[in-house]
Structures are given as C-alpha cells and as structure tokens.
Amino acid sequence: MPICDLQILAWQGWSLQVPAAWNPVRVEGDADSGSMLLADLAAARLGIRWRSAGRGDPKKLVDRVIAGEAGDEVPAADSIASSNSGLIEPRLRRDSESQREFFAAYSARRKRVIEIVHTPAEGGSMADRILPSLTEQPAEEDQFWSVFGLHVHTPAEFKLQSYAFNAGDVALHFRHGNGRTIVRRIGPAKLALSRQPLEKWATTLDRSQRKLYRSASLVGSALADRLLESYNPSKDGPPGRTLQDVATAKIPRRRRLFWAWLVPKQLTAIAAVDPVADRLIVGSSNDPEVLRRLIQQAMKNDVTDISAPTEQQELIPA
Amino acid sequence: MIGKRKTPPLTQEQLLALKPVRLVSPALQPRENGGGALKVPLPQRRWPFKLPAGATKTFELDAVGVFVWNALDGETTVQQLIEKLAAEYRLNLREAQVPTLKFLETLMRKGLIGLPRNDRSSNADPAAVV
User: Which pLDDT score, from 0 to 100, does residue A130 have?
Assistant: First the structure.
C-alpha cells in the first residue's frame, strides 16, 4: 500500500498508522480506559481498546486478555512491535476461518494493556502494515493528537475534556489545571467564511464559555504577527500570508465572576485560515503561547512537519 | 397475508452501491453564494385544496448541495458521490459520507430523488424506489 494512502491516528497516548479510508466511528473513555472503532465506508475494520492494568506481571496480564480469543498464535509477534513502541509482551492470534486477528500487548510507559481487533477486508494482515506503527507515548512527555486531519502536540499536563467530531468541524477541548484550551478545525474554509467573517469565528465562544466570558474585542496583534512569522506553507503552496488571514481576540471574564478565581481572567482566541488545506483553524485558551503553538501545528497539513521534542517523531512516516 | 410485505433492510455495502436518480427535473437557479434553488412544480390537488396553476415549491441548496445534486445522474453510485465530494472539498471520506447520506435522505423524504434497488430492472417505475 502506498504511503499516501495511510494516515496517522493518535489518541489518548497511543498512535497508529492506518489506511486513510479508515476513520473513527465510535470513541469512548479516557486515557485510563477506553476504545475506538475504525471503519471504512463499508464496514468496521479495526477496534482498539486500552485499559489500565495496575500492578502485576505484564506477561500474565496479556495472557489473561488473550486467553478468551479464538485462533492460533502467530509466533512472529515479537517482531511486530518496534523497539521504541513502548510495548512489551506482544501477542497476536489469527483465526484462519474468519481471518480475524487479535493483538494484545502491555504498555510499560503507561501501565496499561492495549488490545486490537482487526477484520481484514482483502486478506491483508495487520501484522504487516498496522502493528509496526503502534506506539505508546510516555505520559510525562508532550502528547500527540491526530484525528480527522487535526494534528496537535499538547503539553503533558493537558487532559482531554471533551471532543466534537462533526462533518467538517473537529474540535478538541483540553483541560489543564484551571485553564481550558480548545482547538477546532473547520472546513472547507471558503464555506465557513461565507457563513461568517474570520473575526466572528475568532470571537465566537462555545456555549460553556459564553456564560463565563464577555463578548470579545479584536486585538491587533503581536500574536498574529508571530503566528504569521512562524508559519511557513509548503514551497509550492500559496505565497506569504497576510493579517487578513488571522484574527486574534482577547476575551475577558464576566465582571460578576470577579470572585471565581478558578475561572481564568482572560482568554485569547485565534482564528486563522489555512489556504493549503482550505481549512479554518480556531482556538481559544488562557495561555496565549500554548495556543499559538497549537494553532501553528494544526495549520501544518503534513504530519512530518510537526516538530516536538519527543521520540514520537520517529514513528511518523517520512 | 395481510399487510404489506416488508422490504429487507439494506446492508451498508448495498446502500453504497445504489444509484440515486432524480424524480423531478427542475432547473437549478444559481445563487450568489454558490448555492442554488430548485423550483419544483407542485402536483395538483382536488377541490377544495386546489392550488393555483403553476404552483411551485422552492428548495434552497447550499454549495455542497448543488454539487451533490449536479452529480445525481442516475449512473453515479452513492459511494462514488461520497468520493467525489471528498475530492472536491478535500474532505476525509467519513466527513463526506455523513453529510452526503443525510442529504440524500432529505432529498428522498422530499420526493426529489429515488434509490432504485439493484435487483430490479433499471427502468423500473418510480414506485419501485426504496
């Protein structure tokens, strides 16, 4: 399968390279336990489940998980997970009748068990093309998130609070201490901008924030300047961006909440147009620098361009 | 047997292989925002609900709706429609699938398109639509 038909999927600490036609259709849980179901247009193809294992012998934990699965053990399982994947005790079973494959391994980095069930469409094995890319990210390092074309690296203390996967509108809501950060990817940008101007996208808060913050004022912008300086579209892409492509806003907390020290005093919001992907990237956070970094990353369409100080980089296909 | 025989539900693969056909052929009037308006003549009713001669109903489509409507030629399958939309707007397949199926469902409910089943003859009457 050519590399262009693959995409990186990263969620709650794990990352995996899957065919581009496979997309999440059901997501549940948090970093401790959860599951994701991937499907193409026709049927479900792959299910991944993770759950905290606590203390115990990793081999016994994996054995217990895989014991109830039908099929024969594939002896080459050890070579499946690459050395930097953070996974130990990998086990793979394949049912020769249904061709269904079941993989389980223990993540030493996050102390949890990862299980993957794969239903091959045309006899392709996940051992060849999917499992070698499976990686667990250390919990104390920056976390990589990649879903529906939205790629960001968040600081380790960021916890995913909620998400919204709507057609053409993908949003991730993170919580960090008392702060909140939201990153959205909306597309196509032309359609989104025909509904309301960029400034309006920057100053529109979601419902949960609207009751906490006043209407925003657009600011001119050192922040936008710095965002533009650091943004470098592909060489073949459109020429340099202008300030019309970026809108930033400062959103103060409502006066009546002067006593609410848990609610950050001010939010910064950025809306930027990504002309290469024809997407609108919108974000808000109480930490302008983190927000600027996340927006930059979300505007880079090629995952390989994202620079982050983690060994996660090695997993991303060249 | 009393009552209508139930049509067996379609699998996802069968649904994707269906070829939607237009049941009406109104002219699409383009709008400035890239969308368009479909003016569909209303069927005449009996007295006392009789409509004025030439009564029409207008359906407003946005740019994506116009793209899908124009692609409904009776030969394009639902899957091809989804792939065309994904390519046109650089969408993920799933991002294209959800609105396309929803839009086709709306068009069917409004009586603008039909989805003839493949196991029947291609020139079946409109009553044969799902």
Answer: 83
B92, A187: Cβ pair inside 8 Å? no
Q: Report whether pLDDT(B127) > 70.
A: no
* pTM for the whole structure: 0.82
- Beta carbons of A148 and B13 less than 8 Å apart: no
| pLDDT tens-digit map of A107-126 | 888 889 999 998 877 656 77
DSSP, collapsed to helix, strand or coil, labels residue B36 as strand
Which ipTM was obtained for this model?
0.74
The closest CB to that of A42, out of B13, B63, B98, belongs to B13
* Minimal-distance CA residue of chain B relative to A147: B92
- Segment A72-103, tens digit of pLDDT: 777 655 566 666 677 888 888 888 887 888 88
Across the interface, whether the CB atoms of B95 and A24 are under 8 A apart is answered no
Q: How far is B92 from chain A (nearest CA, A)?
A: 7
